[in-house]
Each structure stands twice: as structure tokens, then as C-alpha cells.
Amino acid sequence: MENIQLSVTENIFKKIKYDIVFGNLEPDQKLKLNLLQTEYNVSISILREVLNRLCGDGFIIYKVQKGFFVSPISKKDLYEIADLRITLETHALEISIKNKDYEWEAELLGAYHKLNHAENELEKNNLNAKSLWTKYDAEFHQMLIKKCNSLNLIRIHEVIFDKYLRYQLLILKYRGKESIKEHKDLLDYSLISNIQKAQNTLRDHIKKGVDYASSNLSL
Amino acid sequence: MENIQLSVTENIFKKIKYDIVFGNLEPDQKLKLNLLQTEYNVSISILREVLNRLCGDGFIIYKVQKGFFVSPISKKDLYEIADLRITLETHALEISIKNKDYEWEAELLGAYHKLNHAENELEKNNLNAKSLWTKYDAEFHQMLIKKCNSLNLIRIHEVIFDKYLRYQLLILKYRGKESIKEHKDLLDYSLISNIQKAQNTLRDHIKKGVDYASSNLSL
DNA sequence: TATAATTAAAGATTCGATTATTTTTATAAT
DNA sequence: ATTATAAAAATAATCGAATCTTTAATTATA
Q1: Which domains does chain A have, with CATH numbers?
Q2: B6, pLDDT greater than 80
Q3: By the CB < 8 Å criterion, does A105 face chain B?
Q4: Taking CB atoms and an 8 Å cutoff, what residues of chain A touch B55?
Q5: DSSP string over B4-67
Q6: Distance in Å, residue A195 CA to nucleotide C30 C1'
């Protein structure tokens, strides 16, 4: 019998991080402890543990005797995040491709297949597919760098990806056909081990995404 | 009158992080809360807040219902950290050099001067200079990337640098003359804006450092 | 009216105690 | 002697209350 029991702290951590990334908690919003206490139904100590952990990742800002605040957003921050994502993800992609095996190719094809399905649904204006697309986009990009053989790199990339995702979700629009083509190219270049073209495609993919996001973001 | 009052939490955070980086708390060591309580003379709640924050940065590992542990070390981890430092620091250096101004040049020269002084003291076998060298080495490298114009990048680099430093301090030995030459080159290439050579020097500098560390590390 | 001082309310910080879980030790059964 | 079971000790997790700080509201003064 499996024991999947998570502590209260772990559950609240996931909830609050989700609420920040998905915009339920707004940028700059002050996180008053007694409000959160009733909202999430936990004690203050638990909340402070969770908020401190999120501080470490930079999703929350802490000011002594002033409390906790959801991290602010800005175009400058968005471009910084995008630049970091490009730097980390292209580097990881190169190593990943160099280390690839059949199992990885299979998993990558699988991840692509799911993403492509969600993309098609979105093209048919099935708006329910939005959250699915979000999930599969993340999984596809995680799979691309999975063989980079560096837990540290994967861990940092994950944080940066979530920060990037937060901006994407603030826009809510979907870049459509262009992005679909880029994902297909990313898959194909990875499978034939063309590192240069795979990296260039990834770089353009993120740059176009961030420009699109930026132009749709009123700040 | 300035208000430099830090909360208890902030102070303990710095102390514990210092103790991890500088090896007073050993890798894999279990951080029992009541022991830490008497050691640092604070309540459990405070400790849990601090340990959670350090989890976010990866200096501490948390296992549900098992407690907190100082992150383990390994050669693989060291090489991952070094690779990340190279990736992040060369990228930041390029942008920094492109954005440079006279003020930065002046500050960089100042930082180099202090580092060079510490290096000379070490050459004279003045072992007290060791901790000074640690400080000035960090400051010199931070100054190199200061103009990269990305708080996110600087913040992440800082965490990686501290993780790298932790390994360096485990070795305690000093690489000597070679490293001195590299620092001088790093300064000169940055000042004449030779980005390629500055990046290559930095890459070699870190690679040689990590190889030196690795070969002196019994794991 | 505008500014400064005082008080009241709200909120952050810290702590000690209670509860729940895990680990260790002791005891019993095979 | 070895494994299984039960009791005890150690430790982690959680909570609610006490303390301290900041912010807002009120009153007093120029």
C-alpha cells in the first residue's frame, strides 16, 4: 500500500505557487497572513514556512516587518526571464541531444504528440484545450532537455519556466500557427541531432513568444 | 538615523547559510530542530522558516516527516555547478562588457586591486589572507557581471557561485600563480572589450578551478 | 486649514505547548 | 538466534496565544 500522504505544508506550498503562476494571486498583492489563514485554512506558522520557501525561488518578495508580497511584473523582468530561459534551455538542449538514446526519442515523440493534439484543439477554437496546452507545452520543453544530465540545470530551468509561464498566462492569448510549426521543427531537428538548428529554432521560438507576450501586456 | 534592524529570522538565515557554505554544517548532516534550537538560540518556528528558505535555493534538502538535511556533495554535482557557472557567467559577462561605462571600469579596477593584494599575500604564505581572498574573489566576479542589466541573472548567479564556493572551501587549497594570471587577463580583456577572449579566459578559469577542486576532493 | 502628537487598530513576529509520526529499544514468539 | 510485535523515546508538524511593529485614525496645536 502506497503512502502518498503529503504534509499540510507541502499541499499549501503547491496551492500557493499555483495561485501565483496562474494569476489567482495578483502581482504586487500583499499576502496578509490572517486573510490567507482563512483562505487556505491553515495556521500562520505553516503559511510563513511556505511563503519563505517561495521567497527562495523568487515568486514572493519579503520585506522585514512589512510582510510578504507577490513578486511584481514588468516588461524588463519578462525580457530577463526570457533571456535566461534561452540561455539555459539552449545549453541544456545541446547536451540533451548529445546524450540521446532511443528511449528519449520515444518519450519526446510522445510528448510532442500530446502537445500537437492540444494545438489542433486550440485551432478549432476549443478553449477548454487551453489548460491542456499549457501542461503539454511545459512537458514537451522539459522532455527536450531531460537528457542534459544535470539536476541542477533542470531544477533552475523549472523555476525560470514557471516564471515565464506566469507571464504567458497573464496574456491568455495563443500565438497559433507560427508556434505549431516551431514545435514541429524543434522535434525534427532534435531527432536528427542537428544541434545548431534545434538551438536556433528554440531561441526564435522563445523570442517570438516573449515579443508577442510583451506587445499584449499593458504595463 | 538609519534603521539597520534585521529580524531574528534574517540573522539566523545568514548564519545558517554561512555555516553550510563554509562547511561548519557538513554535507548530509541531519539538521535536528532541537539541537539547532540550542545552537542558534531561537525557536523552532524561526528555524523552520529559515530552513524552508534555504530549501528554495537548494542548500538544504527536505524530506516529509523526516526533517531537514544539508545538501549532499558529489563530483557530479560539482561539475554540474561549474558548468552552470560557466554558462551563466560567460553570458552575463558578454552583456556586461557591452553595457560598460567609466564608472564600471573604475569599480572593476578597484575590485581587481583588492583581489590582487590578497593574492600577493597568499603567495607570501600569509594564511590569514585566505578568507580575504575568498571575499575579494567573489566581489571581483560579481563586479565583472554587474552591468549585465538583469537582476534575475545576478540573483541566480549568486546562488550558483555560493554553491561553487562551498566546494572550493571544502578543498581549502589555493591554486596559486595560474589563477592570478587568469584574473589579470580577465580584467584586461574586459577593459579592452574583447568579449571572446574574456569569455574564453573565464571558461578556462572555472574549468581549471573545478578540475583542481575535483582532483583534491575525496568522494 | 495644515501639521504634529497621541491613541487605536491591524498586522507581523516570535514563542511554548500540543499533537502526530518516526525511530529506537525492549519484549515476546518462532 | 532470529524475526516479529509492542512499548517507549525522540523528533517532526502544527497550532494558538503573547509580544512587538507598523499603519490608520483621532485629537491637539500652530
Answers
A1: 8-70 (1.10.10.10), 75-215 (1.20.120.530)
A2: no
A3: no
A4: 53, 56
A5: -PPPHHHHHHHHHHHHHHTTSSPTT-EE-HHHHHHHHT--HHHHHHHHHHHHHHTSEEEETTTE
A6: 64
